[in-house]
Design goal:
Structural class: alpha+beta
Helix content: 10-25%
Distance between the termini: 28 Å
Shape: globular
Number of helices: 5
Radius of gyration: 20 Å
Number of strands: 20
Length: 279
């Protein structure tokens, strides 16, 4: 699921702007018009998407691109939306897959630093796993990939027809000292993961670097599960984590994985692997 927060998308001194018009999907009544940075908006609306503007979260049910004939490059987006608090998901799912087991929620307990808030559906959707799990990961991704094929669900903005529970993966059971990881990549003050307004994932941690937001489960200072909130493409920091701890990254909702394969190429680039390429 995409969760778009305006503050997260503002980059650069003079970002290109796109006019966005929000209307209620059930009545057509206009909610408001906004000028949003182009990089804040996704290229495709092919999955359930929430847009948060001025601390108000809206579930997008239809997205239409309109071009203004007056100016060649002028365009605007029309979003039909519903308030997240009143949206009825029905039998469809916000994500094609979910982690197992579900995180244990309760009062904040471990760390006092800044917290990371996220919807429950995003928990462990982009995670680091031992390379020894590659055969199982490959089979799991093949199942998820089938639900992402065009035509499986009529309108991807409204959700997925099926939900694959990753029972075979379970907990990652990593053995990474939290302080070692933070010192290696320059982590910020440690906080916790907040799923709802009043509940936190028990034994959770969160810290950020210049490039990523890391989170997971830690027991007695040892990381057991490690994930990142978002991922675009490999960089030096990312490769350091993979190489130092013998890990791979799995982006479950997009059915892709990244291995630190030592390929015979001039740039020695990391491999972005799909199930078809490793069968």
């Amino acid at each position: 699921m995409n969760w778009l927060k305006l503050a997260d998308g503002v980059t650069g001194l003079f970002p290109k702007k796109v006019q966005v018009v929000l209307t209620y999907g059930n009545s057509g009544q206009e909610i408001g018009k906004y000028k949003l940075p182009e990089e804040f908006l996704p290229e495709k609306y092919d999955k359930p998407t929430v847009i948060e503007i001025q601390n108000q979260a809206w579930r997008i049910t239809k997205a239409t691109l309109v071009r203004d004939k007056t100016y060649l490059r002028s365009r605007k987006l029309l979003f039909e939306v519903e308030e997240m608090t009143s949206y009825e998901q029905g039998s469809r799912h916000l994500a094609p897959t979910t982690a197992f087991p579900s995180p244990l929620l309760g009062p904040k307990s471990l760390f006092s630093g800044p917290d990371l808030g996220m919807p429950a559906e995003n928990w462990r959707q982009i995670e680091f796993l031992p390379t020894s799990l590659l055969p199982v990961i490959q089979e799991e991704i093949a199942i998820i990939e089938a639900s992402l094929q065009p035509g499986v669900h009529a309108d991807p903005l409204l959700g997925y027809d099926s939900l694959h529970i990753r029972e075979r993966i379970g907990h990652s059971n990593l053995e990474l000292p939290l302080t070692d990881l933070q010192q290696m990549i320059g982590g910020s003050e440690t906080g916790s993961v907040q799923i709802t307004a009043h509940e936190y994932v028990q034994q959770s941690f969160f810290f950020s670097t210049l490039n990523y937001r890391y989170y997971g489960i830690v027991l007695d200072g040892i990381i057991k599960d490690l994930s990142i909130e978002a991922f675009d493409s490999p960089d030096d920091e990312f490769m350091t984590v993979l190489e130092s701890f013998g890990l791979m990254l799995v982006d479950w909702c997009n059915a892709r994985m990244i291995l630190n394969e030592i390929a015979e190429t001039p740039e020695n680039a990391p491999a972005i692997v799909s199930p078809d390429s490793i069968l």
